[in-house]
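MODEL INPUT / OUTPUT PAIR
PAIR INDEX: 1
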Amino acid sequence: MITNPNVKINLGLNVLRKREDGFHDLETLFVPYFGISDTLEIVVGDDYSRTSAALFGRYGEPDGCAGEAPMLAQGISEDGKLMITIARKEGVDWDPLKDLTAKAYRILAEDFELPPVKIFLEKTSPVGAGLGGGSADAAFALKMLDELCGLGLSEEQLASYASRLGSDCAFFVYNRPMIGEGRGEILSEYPVSLEGYDLQILTPEGISVSTKDAYSGIRPHIPEVPLREALARPIEEWDGILVNDFEETVFAKYPELAAIKRSLYDSGAAYASMSGSGSALFALYRM
């Protein structure tokens, strides 16, 4: 089975307060974006498909260790039930067995008797860009395993598993515009429409922002204009009231991102913002 996990943008991202468990309460609107995606294949047993074979053709033989950022890295679990191969042009600088797709398999294996599987992931979505590419991979892996293994899980059950993998993973189970609250895992549908606008995303090369760094200087607060009230206004009025709280911290460290945002407005954008904890920026242009 092959799918293409897409990314998302955040329309507004308010960091409201720090919680006793160390996390923060947030409010944001997740919106799926299908113009950037990875390729994820999961096969049961020993079968291989054209996609997995094509990975080897494009990236060469896999390296069993991701320490030197090979273009193709592979890991096999100790029990031999999970093999995961990850390909990325910029290099794979993480352990494939610690990838969220591998964790998705293991979290389901805690409750179900899963067959041996092989996961093939071609990463084309940027890492550390605030677009949720890794979370999308994990959520899609959960949905694929549910279908392949006949688990019969509902969207709500899959979202519950996904929320244990990452704060925005549950959104990708539904993959439609939703308000995220709590850590981002408390979701409610929101009928936003970007019809009549062209959405463009910029992913600056050489800048990868870790979520930990983005939170390092954050100042939780209640916004003057609540998220839903800001979203209800015309898009041309969003600037200044529909805010991503991470911009203050991230722009201070990477002033070039602030300059890019200014250039988006200079080029005629009706609204521009950073997505998630950065570094990607997006702009809405009236068509």
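PAIR INDEX: 2
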Amino acid sequence: MERTLDYVKKQDKRDELSSFRDRFYLPKIKGKEAVYFTGNSLGLQPKSAESFLKQELEDWAKYGVEGHFEARRPWYAYHEFFSEHLAYIVGAKSKEVVAMGSLTANLHSLMVSFYRPNGNRNMILCEKKAFPSDTYALQAQATLHGLDPKQVIFEMEPAKGSEIITEDAIIEKIFELGDRLAMVMIGGVNYYTGQAFDMAAITDAAHKVGASCGFDLAHAIGNIELKLHEWQVDFAAWCTYKYLNSGPGSVGGLFVHSNHLKKKLPILAGWWGHDKEKRFLMEPEFMPMQSAEAWQMSNAPVFNMAIHLASLEIFREATMGRLLAKSWRLTDYLAFIVEEVASATGADLEIITPPEHHRRGCQLSIVAHGYGKRLFDSITEAGVIADWREPNVIRVAPVPLYNSFLDVYRFGEILQKSLKA
């Protein structure tokens, strides 16, 4: 690898996904295209989003309520347009996934089904410094069962002097908790460090002690390889506004393994989860669909789902295999650039994200020791849109769909000038 313009131009010329950048709107700072490295917080807008949304608006104007059945993409079955796309991205069967709700609401719905404390089996295992919403949801679920969250939630901490929680430590704790463990619920990729967990190994260990296992995939979906069905994961939920580029606050999604679809699990029932052949009979008894659709409560929010569909079609065209391969190359180059900048400036820059490809997605979390938020503000002013996390982490994510090697090079130049300043 080289830190030269000639090198990055050659890499971008060889990039078979380079044309996808033109399918997104890139923000500008002071009239110049920004280095947008925060797709891990909010993905960019696909240019096709407007036409997808416009079609639904036109059909609403034309058909009114009859659009549920007469629209070009009938609204009554709108969620069904997502099943194959989502199954492909998360490694599932079509019947195991559904686009619905929002991330934390979906997690609550799933935990009603999969967190079933019984006597001494009431413990929840999660990671410390999970995304706060996950922590709040876990605490609320424990409280709803009349339990003290401080007594039943165990948070895995990194070893002293590290930011990373090893799978060995998680698995050791799972077996230590044993028949007291009711559920494992961890972020598939930790939002703070960017660490990707071995979900297959964690799930297997949880099942061996009789516990359920689920994951928050907010920072994993569209970012790392997922094989939820093969890994025997019990449940998972995600948002779609990060790597899936579906717009702020867009519809979420969830996964339930087919092993559970015919079980009589407790469900927060709603009429859209009712057997669709009998839904309009308005029967008093809930008859859940034999798929993840059973967890639906209400009909599809068509307008924001239209943008989600626009993005998913881009993903299918790009293919996850090509996206992952480019992601590894881009992130390796970003790590190289950060090291070069540190060497050139004498700055203490520490990447706390694991270096191995299978242990990370495209996010790198950088600690600039001794600089603090002043450095982050400086690179923002100079044209980098990244992400700050207290107390001292700059998160940068070169997203393979729309970022380039030139973006990474520009980031290095801006970072070096800001450090010197």
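PAIR 2 NOTE: The domain at 5-33+320-420 is CATH 3.90.1150.10 (Aspartate Aminotransferase, domain 1).
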